[in-house]
């Protein structure tokens, strides 16, 4: 990440509280995006390749990085965790959920390992024309962190068309609301993995959120996902 320490967390917290997601412009440099894309075919980096159609997850392919993670990904996962854990703890309090996250990622990962969630979850995804990702959540076990981050690695309108990031928010006793997010190459989106606390007349309630990607209509789209918990 170019300027991690310069992030305006006050503003990011505000967006996350209000919407359940927050955009970071130019989170990754062009060079970092380029080398992540170039590394897509370096098979030794990855523990597993998923052809999405096989599981009816959509149409496209993704690969999970193995441990040890590439330095950049390890750094992003470590450094972005702490400010998000602070917000996660506030959310748990609002929702009266008896759960507090440790403020450093190493301790959190140790607690994942203690419940047999051992496998790293950062992943790189690609979709060609006709590809898409159905609405889902990335929980991977009983222990999950309530935020994750997506980095779009190439440019909509130039490298591909379509392929918008979509989030839905399920409002109790109502229809779902959709958010369509335009992200440029290098931009990141922090979003809730499961639900956000929404304010109702009797305090906070859980608004369940899912995410996915609309159909890529031409070209090829690449993205990097950072999930903070490990998988079973
Ligand atoms: O390709 C995308 O933008 C969606 C990735 C995704 O589902 C994730 O990062 O969890
Ligand atoms: Fe996902």
Quick summary of this structure?
With 232 residues, the chain is an alpha+beta fold.
Radius of gyration: 17 Å
Global shape: globular
Major β-sheet profile: 8 strands, antiparallel
What is the helix fraction of residues, given as a range?
Answer: 25-40%
Domain count: 1
Strand content: 35-45%
Write the layout of secondary structure elements.
Elements (H helix, E strand, L loop, with lengths): L8 H11 L1 E4 L5 H9 L7 E6 H4 L2 E2 L1 E5 L5 H24 L10 H10 L8 E6 L3 E5 L10 E6 L7 E3 L2 E6 L5 E6 L6 E5 L2 E6 L2 E11 L2 E12 L5
Antiparallel strand pairs: 1-11, 2-4, 3-6, 4-5, 5-14, 6-13, 7-11, 7-14, 8-14, 9-10, 9-13, 12-13
Bound molecules: 2-oxoglutaric acid and fe (ii) ion (FE2).
List its traits.
single chain; 232 residues; alpha+beta; Jelly Rolls; 8-stranded antiparallel beta sheet; 6-stranded antiparallel beta sheet; globular; binds 2-oxoglutaric acid; binds fe (ii) ion; 2OG-Fe(II) oxygenase; DUF2086; Oxoglu/Fe-dep_dioxygenase_dom; metal-binding
Commentary on this structure:
Residues 108-231 form the Fe2OG dioxygenase domain. It holds the Pfam family Oxygenase-NA. Keywords: Iron, Metal-binding, Oxidoreductase. This is 2OG-Fe(II) oxygenase. This protein has 232 residues and is α+β, with helices and mostly antiparallel strands. The chain has a single domain (4-227), classed as Jelly Rolls (Sandwich), CATH 2.60.120. The chain is built from 5 helices and 14 strands. Strands 1, 2, 4, 5, 7, 8, 11 and 14 form an 8-stranded antiparallel sheet that branches. The radius of gyration is 17 Å and the shape is globular. The model has no long low-confidence stretch (mean pLDDT 96). 2-oxoglutaric acid binds next to strand 7, strand 13 and strand 14. Fe (ii) ion is lined by residues 136, 138, 211, 225.
């Amino acid at each position: 990440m170019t300027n991690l320490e310069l992030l305006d967390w006050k503003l990011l917290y505000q967006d996350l509280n209000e919407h359940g997601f927050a955009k970071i412009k130019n989170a990754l440099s062009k060079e970092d995006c380029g080398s992540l894309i170039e590394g897509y075919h370096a098979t030794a980096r990855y523990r597993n390749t998923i052809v999405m159609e096989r599981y009816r997850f959509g149409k496209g392919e993704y690969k999970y990085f193995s441990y040890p993670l590439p330095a950049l990904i390890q750094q992003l996962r470590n450094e972005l965790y702490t400010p998000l854990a602070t917000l996660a703890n506030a959310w748990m309090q609002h929702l009266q959920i008896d759960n507090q996250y440790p403020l450093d990622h190493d301790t959190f990962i140790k607690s994942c390992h203690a419940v047999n969630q051992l496998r790293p979850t950062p992943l790189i995804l690609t979709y060609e024309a006709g590809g898409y990702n159905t609405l889902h959540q990335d929980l991977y076990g009983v222990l999950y962190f309530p935020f994750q981050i997506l980095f779009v690695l190439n440019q909509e309108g130039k490298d591909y068309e379509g392929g918008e990031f979509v989030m839905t928010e399920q409002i109790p006793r109502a229809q779902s609301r959709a958010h369509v997010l335009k992200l440029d190459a290098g931009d990141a989106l922090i979003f809730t993995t499961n639900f956000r606390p929404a304010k109702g007349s009797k305090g906070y309630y859980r608004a369940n959120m899912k995410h996915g990607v609309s159909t890529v209509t031409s070209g090829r789209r690449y993205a990097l996902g950072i999930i903070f918990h490990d998988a079973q």
